[in-house]
Description:
Shape: globular
Number of helices: 2
Amino acid sequence: MVRIATAVVLTRGAGEAREVLLVERSPALRFLGGYWAFPGGVLDRELDGADGEPATDGEPANLRACGARELFEETGVLLPPWREHLAGADRDDLRAALLDEPGDPGRR
């Protein structure tokens, strides 16, 4: 089975002042728990089609949607154009609902 995944390299600033966002993986995770990594994860078609249908060639639109979803789940950062569709309180409620999904200690 092919698992298609994304990673997001989020930066700000330029030159020597450039900063790169890393997240600490939950210590509860079986794989690399406690390690620092770029936000990201596996393309998911079970979330009401949030990432679109997976494609073996890694369609850019699907990968962008997956990366944006994972970034939002893991850090609370919501990128354009999705940011324009959710007000601040709605964003907080959506993220809280995602983080409260049972059976996934890695999302806490």
